[in-house]
Amino acid sequence: LPRLYHQNVIDHYNNPRNVGSFDKNDPNVGTGLVGAPACGDVMKLQIKIDEESGKIVDACFKTFGCGSAIASSSVATEWVKGKSKDEVLTIKNTEIAKHLSLPPVKLHCSMLAEDAIKAAVKDAEAKRGKMNGSSKAADA
Ligand code: FES
After folding, report:
1. Do 78 and 91 contact (CB within 8 A), yes or no?
2. Cys-Cys crosslink for 109: which of 2, 56, 68, 92, Cβ 3.0 to 4.6 Å?
């Protein structure tokens, strides 16, 4: 095997952390589903938010994609745990890529993880908005 990949990628690829799914209808779960137009790979990342503290207490992912995308989502689920929604929005794909020492051609794979985190937060906030009654009219 060419020594193209850093040990962190191989580790997260061989032993991905937090593979799985949460119930997307759980009001405390935010789901981010994103795709990379360049290659067609797809990543689903979910976060579970503690209502009281507003912190992300758990995260999981399912990625149909290359090794770098799988490794990036694995790292992302580890990094979001224990953080607030605002904090995780500052996670940059370049940090993930650096952690994994991804080569430049694989940068878009880590971008999927950044996008998935953002989409998951957005979904969680949309749900919260609904629970606050803003969708009453839509229910009527
Ligand atoms: Fe597309 Fe990695 S090659 S996500």
Report:
1. no
2. 68
For residue 50, the SS3 value is coil
CA distance readout (Å), 1 to 6, 10, 11, 46, 87: 12, 11, 15, 33, 37
**Residue nearest to ligand 1 atom 4, measured at CA:** 109
Q: What architecture is domain 7-124?
A: Alpha-Beta Complex (3.90)
Q: Would you list the domain boundaries of the chain? A: 7-124
118-140 b/e (C-beta count within 10 Å ≥ 16 → b)? bbbbebbeebbeeeeeeeeeeee
pLDDT per residue over 110-139, tens digit each? 999 999 999 999 999 999 887 765 544 444
C-alpha dihedral, 134 to 136 to 139 to 140, nearest 10°: -150
Q: Is the dihedral of CA 129, 130, 134, 138 positive or negative?
A: positive
Ligand 1 atom nearest to 108, measured from its CA: 4
Catalytic entry in 109, 111, 113, 120: 109
What residue type is assigned to position 14 of the chain? N
ipTM of the modeled complex: 0.97
State the first-to-last Cα distance of the chain, in angstroms, to the nearest integer: 60
